[in-house]
Amino acid sequence: MLDALTVAVAVTALALAAWCGFAAYRDQPTKDWHFIGMAVVSVLALAQLVVGIVQLGRGEKADEGTAIFLSYLIGSALAVPAAGFLSLAERTRWGSATVAAGAVVLAVLEVRLHDIWGG
């Protein structure tokens, strides 16, 4: 795995969590700008998914097993989009809180992915 990409995904996810958490604190639903932020984080997570699959295809192996690595990799790519869709259904402050929680989950998944790969 690329350490710089893992750090970039985790940091942008935490920034999104803080931004949406602040919106929830101010009693605001997710806005268009939040969805742009979610798109940026999701693109980074998808890039990491592609890099991880390519590295597995080249014969590199995760220390804790390929199946669990792929599970975490796919889960990390889906965490923020799933939270974004849920926030569309809940157009209150709790939609923003859901996105904030999904972004924190993504940051935690990034740390775990780094550990699984052998970091």
What descriptive keywords fit this protein?
119 residues; elongated; 4 helices; mainly alpha
Proportion in β-strands: under 5%
Q: How much helicity do the residues have?
A: over 70%
Q: Give the overall shape.
A: elongated
Unreliable residue stretches: none
Number of DSSP-assigned strands: 0
Class computed from helices, strands and strand pairing: mainly alpha
Helix and strand pattern:
HHHH
Average per-residue pLDDT, rounded, comes to 93
The biggest beta sheet, please?
A: none
How many helices? The count is: 4
Distance between the termini: 9 Å
Question: What is the CA-based Rg, rounded?
Answer: 15 Å
Can you tell me about this structure?
The chain is mostly helical and 119 residues long. The chain has helices spanning 3-25, 32-57, 66-89, 93-117.
Summarize the helices and strands and which ones pair or pack:
Layout: H1 3-25, H2 32-57, H3 66-89, H4 93-117
What is the structure about, briefly put?
Helix content is 82%, strand content 0%. With 119 residues, the protein is mainly α.
